[in-house]
Amino acid sequence: HEADAYRTDLMTITRFVLNEQSKYPESRGDFTILLSNIVLGCKFVCSAVNKAGLAKLIGLAGETNIQGEEQKKLDVLSNDVFVKALVSSGRTSVLVSEEDEEATFVESSKRGKYCVVFDPLDGSSNIDCGVSIGTIFGIYTMTHNDDPTTEDVLKPGNEMVAAGYCMYGSSCMLVLSTGTGVNGFTLDPSLGEFILTHPDIKIPKKGNIYSVNEGNAQNWDGPTTKYVEKCKFPKDGSPAKSLRYVGSMVADVHRTLLYGGIFLYPADKKSPNGKLRVLYEVFPMSFLMEQAGGQAFTGKKRALDLVPEKIHERSPIFLGSYDDVEEIKALYAAEG
Ligand code: AHG
Ligand code: MN
Ligand code: MN
Ligand code: MN
After folding, report:
1. If 0-12 CB within 10 Å is exposed, 13-18 middle and 19+ buried, where does residue 253 land?
2. Is residue 213 lining ligand 1, measured as CB closer than 6 Å?
3. Confidence band for 62, pLDDT divided at 50, 70 and 90
4. What pairs with residue 175 in β-bridges?
5. What distance in angstroms lies between residue 85's CA and the mean position of ligand 3's atoms?
6. Which ligand lies nearest to the CA atom of residue 69 in the structure?
């Protein structure tokens, strides 16, 4: 009765991570507790997003964040839920959120060994029109027992121990890596559980989709301009690539991960460091891409080797299928 077995053998995200962690004899379940609180936040945001219009949760909150963006009600609500869930987990020491100017340092009685950097609501400009949005997070571990400082999160992405995102779209999907591959879990609202639906995700080695905001084309540098030109007017007789751009990084990256292709948010004359934030957008998505067999490049170096100096620092990013990113790297190398 294969069908019956499937119905009763539920591989929830908690069970999956417990299996993973059981490979480390010294693990005491701290990561599992941390993850269950991130999952709680995602379930809350999923529910709030699904009834946003009804619950009058669309529109502006009347505040502006450090990014100079007008905060949406859902930006502020999601941020509050994640900060409270992470602090109360007793497993974190430092939190960095897109929506908070300063890092949050957890008071000593509630401190734990993890530092979480996160974008509570990614793609805010798409909230009011019902287009997919998401949450992005990255996890570092504390390396000392003294009082935490910003130094504990100003680390290269190659020191992250886990990263993931949750996409609030036609279904609610959580994609996670703890450093041994990428797995996708879909929320079953009738159970309130994320169930493993996409085991061991690998990105196709090459894709035929490019994803960029062409509205910035007049400000792009040479290599980016050449690459996009090549996507649209291939010289070697290969078919032109399709353009797909949602404007929510989570949605554009999720499609790239599953279908292959390349996502780029390049530098431009107006923003020499591009738009996307290193700690809670570039690093987690780069971590996932590499774990799925893809690549992530800044135009100068491997994205995960960046060492951020400020918690809201930005970087250009080119990520996706291995071969597609190789082409971009060659163009930047040629420019020298
Ligand atoms: P956020 O809503 O968290 O501020 O992030 C928005 C980001 C990212 O989701 C997306 O890839 C990018 O902004 C889109 O920027 P443009 O509208 O400039 O293309
Ligand atoms: Mn924002
Ligand atoms: Mn974002
Ligand atoms: Mn955001």
Report:
1. buried
2. yes
3. confident
4. 165, 184
5. 20
6. 2
